[in-house]
Amino acid sequence: MDFLLLSLIKTGLVAFVFLTALAYLQWIERKVIAHVQVRVGPNRVGPHGLLQPLTDTIKLLTKEDLIPAHVNKFFYLLAPVIGVAMALISISVIPFGPKITVPFTSIETYLGLTDLNIGVLVPLACSGIGVYAVALAGWSSNNKYALLGGLRASAQMVSYELPLAVAIAAPLLMHNSLSMREIVESQNVVKWGFLYNWSIFSYFGIPFVAFIIFLICAFAETNRIPFDLPEAENELVAGFHTEYSSMKFAAFFMAEYANMTTICCLAVILFLGGWLPPTPGLDWVPGAVFFASGVLMLYHGTVNLARARDRISLPLFGVIFCGIGVLHWIPVLMPITTPLFWFLSKTLFLLFLYIWVRATLPRFRYDQLMHFAWGWMFPVSIGTLFATGLLVAVWK
Amino acid sequence: MPPPPPVPLVAYLTLSAILFVLGVAGFLIRKNLITMFMSIELMLNAVNLSFVSFSYHLKQTDGHLFTFFVMVVAAAEAAVGLAIILTVFKNRATLMVDEVDSLKL
Amino acid sequence: MDPILFAIFAGIAVVCGIVMVTQRHPIASALSLIGVMGSLAVLYLLLGAEFIAAAQVIVYAGAIMVLFLFVIMLLNAGAEPKPLRSSYLAGFLGVPMVLALMGLLGYLVKRSFPLDVTVRFGDFTGGSAKAVGDALFRKYLLPFEVTSVLVLIAILGAVVLARKEMD
To answer: In angstroms, what separates the C-alpha of B19 from chain C's closest C-alpha?
Structure first.
């Protein structure tokens, strides 16, 4: 099959899945936060509120597209475009799995859109350009709260990009490559007979420190709680997107979730072994997980029915999940589904961590934020880099 | 459809020359300190493009290294230059070069 | 594919360069400069300089220009006022001289290489991070160390200049 057609199909598939996942990520966030705070969360539209993202999208699409009179129109409209474009571009260098053969054909292809030999730098570059979206939105809105938010955001993102980059350098030193695929391949070594050599498991856990630094900086880069100073609602109304409404607001929203997802994928690839399972011989686990949850749903939906309104939805989802579980056990599909399962479950865990932290921690004060970046994160990341470099030099 | 002819190296160098001249013109036309500073950056970028094209032609990496050093120096220059501009603005409340005309306040 | 990409991004670079020079508002100038830098990064990729392209976007467009934008916003710099009296001499001499400089450079460039020296994507692979790093830490180690000292001095200078109590 010719390269262009294959790339087009893969791009369409990834774009569809990614955008749907972004919409549902917001549903997951609302549900998880609700349960952390002992609430129910969205549950009116569809079973368990599962159609909520759809209605939200329709609402945002059909709202009046308002442009305030006092804004600088060109830059005001440009900012969300830059934001969402830069957020969506970086998913194209993320590899989701190894080289596979499409079942029932002889087409061989990589799971993932492309593999550049400067792959790791692409998300960094995109987040670097993404700063302009926030800064421009703040400035062009011609609103003091928006401007303060924009200034805070640009200072914060530039400051935290430094320790982030240094934390990334530690696994790059260990795996001696900038290509994400090669980084994961280089972790594909079993050590002590039972453990895959994920970055965080090697060199006495020093890369684990780098991983923690990376996570903290990732929170700051994506403007999430506890670093959401640019949009601190009780100080700045809504920060840089105060003056934005309808689709333009949705664009910023989407950019935030896309950035979150991409940076979690990056963390999984650099530190958590990408699509590799923790130990060898776990090929039965993905199917078992889905099958067990399906059986659980069937049990609660039929035998032990807690709420009357679940009597259709829970058995239905139970059957679907059992089906997905069986799908994971089909030998032909296994080379595709198993790596994808591990990759996605690790990414989802990190995303869950994001939401968990949002539900738990309060916000930093601005001077604390800056002091934390330059006084703690930066020295610690440099120290980690030195230690890793030393160990790599001694070991190799 | 026949494939279009390949790009001559001269095209890259000409682009570099155009950008350089634009930078010079901007430096001379504009009165705003920051914009003048940005024109200098444009000239540096134009020269970088020449370096990279020559590097391609000679099949050597050295041109890339020069570009790299230019970037580092530009970063240092931006840090100091913008600090100077901030100080000028603090003392004279203007960014126009025409109005910064006394040696001593 | 090469010539199309070159034409598109060279076009963007030139248009952004012209906009940068002619716009009165510094924010517009800064953004068009970012446009120039972005399109130059693509041209670097075409010339096989992947690492430099990434560095161009991360360092130039992502860090240095953010600093510029930050300062413009901080000082709330408005558009330049139209000059009260414009010098006719400047118009009469300036435009021809810029064109002359352009022509001179163009002539030099034209003479330096024949037209059949062409650029094909993928012909040169010395621009990977590996090759650049190798050259940087072997052949150019001393300049590299010197630039690090230069950056340190620049940081000190910026801190001293931007301190609150200036005397």
So the answer is: 7
Model pLDDT for residues C143-166, shown as the tens digit of each residue: 899 999 999 999 898 888 877 665
- Shortest Cα distance, chain C CAs vs residue B43, angstroms: 10
pLDDT at A369 over 80: yes
CB contact residues (below 8 A), chain C span 81-110, against chain A: none
For A64-68, A76-80, A271-275, C20-24, which range has the lowest pLDDT when averaged over its residues? A64-68
- Whether chain A lies against chain C with 3 or more Cβ pairs closer than 8 A is yes
pLDDT digits (tens, 9 = 90+) for A77-127: 888 888 888 888 888 888 887 877 777 777 777 777 777 778 888 888 888
Residue A199 near residue A386 (C-beta atoms within 8 A):
no
Candidates A76, A89, A126, A131: best to mutate against C (most CBs of C within 10 A) is: A131
Tens-digit pLDDT profile for chain B (105 aa)? 566 677 888 888 888 888 888 888 888 888 888 888 889 999 999 999 989 888 888 888 888 888 989 998 888 988 888 888 888 888 887 777 777 777 776
Chain A residue with CA closest to C60: the answer is A128
Structure tokens at A393: 């030099």
Indicate whether A243 and A335 sit together in one domain.
yes
Same domain? A55 vs A69: no
Chains B and A are touching, with contact defined as 3 or more CB–CB pairs separated by less than 8 Å:
no
Domain of A23? 1-62
The third-level CATH classification (topology) of the domain covering B9-94 is Helix Hairpins (1.10.287)
CA B24 to chain centre: 9
Least Cα distance to A88 among A11, A154, A5, A179 occurs for A11
pLDDT at B45: 92
Q: A287 lies in a domain?
A: no
Cβ within 8 Å of residue A217, ≥6 positions away: A160, A161, A163, A164, A167, A377
Record: contact C43-B15, CB cut-off 8 A:
yes
Cβ-based contacts of A150 with chain C (< 8 Å): 73
The domain total for chain A is 2
Counting as contact any 3 or more CB pairs under 8 A, the partners of B are C
Measured CA to CA, the distance from residue C158 to residue A143 in angstroms comes to 30
B100 at interface of C, judged by CB pairs closer than 8 A = no
- CA A184/CA A272 separation, integer angstroms: 9
C69 vs A155: CB contact, 8 Å cut-off?
no
Which chain B residue has its CA at the smallest distance from C159's CA? Answer: B83
Cα separation, C50 vs A116, whole angstroms: 9
ipTM, 2 dp: 0.85
Inter-chain CB proximity C136 and B68 less than 8 Å: yes
With respect to residue A150, please indicate whether it lies within any of the assigned structural domains. Answer: yes
Q: Tokens 């589904």 map to which residue?
A: A337
The pLDDT score that the predictor gives to residue A279 is 79
Facing residue for C70 by CB, picked from A75, A129, A154: A154
For C95, nearest residue in chain B (alpha carbons): B25
List CB contacts (< 8 A) between C2 and chain B.
6-7
How far the first Cα of chain A sits from its last, in Å, is 42
DSSP labels for A313-342?
HHHHHHHHHHHHHHHHH-TTTHHHHHHHHH
Instruction: Kindly write down the DSSP assignment for every residue of A177-227, as one continuous string.
Output: -S-HHHHHHHH--EETTTEE--GGGSGGGHHHHHHHHHHHHHHHHTT-TTS
